[in-house]
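Z., the sequence and structure:
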Amino acid sequence: MTATASLALRTKLTPTTTVLRAATAALWRPEGLRRRYLRYLAAMHPLVRASVPLLERAAERCAGLDDPGARSLAAYYTRHAEEERDHDTWLLEDLAAAGAGPAAVPHPVVVELAGAQYYRIEHEHPVTLLGYMAVLEGNAPGPRLADRLAEATGLPEGAFRTVREHAELDGGHLDELHRVLDELAPAPARQTAVSVSALHTANLLTRLFLSLAADPGGHP
C-alpha cells in the first residue's frame, strides 16, 4: 500500500527526533532555568509574531495558483491564521508577568526560521509551509511542562499562558495538518519540498534550543 503524504513526512522527520529532544531537554534542565525561560519567551515572541503574516501570505499565494487543491489549502491557511491570531500578545503578557520584556533584536536563528518560509512561499510553493508547521506543532510544549517550569522558576502563574495554551492546542492542530496534507496528496516534487522545509525547520529549531540552553546571551 502506498504511504500517505503525512506518513511519508513523519518518516522523513524521524531521524531528527533524538537530537531535537536532546536540545529540548538541555533547554529545560533545572539549573539556571528561570533565566533561560525568560530568554526562551523573548526568542519565541518574534517567531510567533511571524506566524499569522506567513499564513496570510501563503493563502494569498494559493489564491493566485491554478494548482489542484490550492483553494482548499488557502482556506486552511486562512482558518489557521485566525486560530493563531494574538498568540504573540500572550508572549508579551507572559514576559510582563515575569518582569521582563521582548528582545530588542530578534534571535538570528528565529530570523532564519521565519525568513526561510517567506522565501519558500514566494519562490517555491506555499504548500512548503506545511513542513514548517508540522515541526513547530509536533514539538509543542508537553502537557506538564508549565507546572514544572512554574515550580522550578518560582515565576507567577501568569508567566506560563503560552506554554499551557500551546500544550493543549497544538496536538489537535497537528492532526488537522496531517489530514490536510493527505487530502492534498501533493505530487512527488511538492511532497519533497514539504519534507525539505520540515527538515530545515527541525535543524534550525534544534540550533535555537541549543543556543538558548548554552549561551547567556541567547545567540549562537
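The domain at 5-214 is CATH 1.20.910.10 (Heme Oxygenase; Chain A). The two ends are 44 Å apart (CA to CA).

Let me know what you think.
H.
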